[in-house]
Amino acid sequence: MLPFMTRYNGDQIIIVLGALLLFCDAPFLEPNSGWQILRVGRKKLVLGKHAIHCGCFLFYTICLSMIPVLLVFPNVGWETGWGR
What we know:
Elements: H1 2-5, H2 9-23, H3 33-40, H4 42-72
């Protein structure tokens, strides 16, 4: 269903802007990052931030795959015939 979702330019822009929103915070640097590194450790901090980021990517992908299914779901029915 995704090819049908991206048929119009407005829909493509919404999908690309959603992915851009996930990528825009890529450096993960905040004003208190130095203190977080001292408290948690560099490796744990980087792994934790990357795990959260990957979780957001996974959630975004699941939403993109489920929205077309939910939009088509009211028109789907279990019948033994060839349709209406």
